[in-house]
Fold this protein.
Amino acid sequence: MQIDNLKKVTITNAQEICALATAGGFALNSPEGASPAKFLNGLLAAENLNQAVQFLSFALPPREAVWWACLCAREGMREPVPPPLQAAIAAAEAWVRKPTEENRRAAGLCAQATDLKSPAAWAAMAAFWSGGSLAPENLPEVAAPPQLMGSAVASAVMLAAVKPEAKFAGQKRARYLQAAIDIANGGNGRISPAAN
């Protein structure tokens, strides 16, 4: 798959995205002057799917990144879904549909009501870390460091790839990356069904 463009990615230099990812705990290093599409093409050609997931987690704008995390989290959910995880994914999706401060804070509360070991919890945390203050509402603002949201998105997507069974992780990552690339080009990112 050759990617010519990532229309929704507003950072035009892959090095800037890699610096953000590195600040978020992921060691990514782009050649000087590479565009995001060129760098991503290199990762995909080398079949470095983990780094491609990490790169796109930081490259996508907040709503698109959280939507991707939500899609991956939903795809891996198995019934019965515990109520805290249902609430977390619903809150993250609500923020994507309507990115208000109220919905952002609700996503944060729902994420904190989980054990933070599931893709749904990290999708909700990504919504909370998308902007605004981390402090309670009546206290002085504490801005979220810009790398937090991407770290939460990467956590959600990578966890979704290994849950409930790690043996399908490679196939799932490849499908998740196709969804992210679709989102990055203005699509809805629906994840293609697993091949039987």
Remarks:
- Residues 62-163 form one domain.
- DSSP finds nine helices and no strands in the chain.
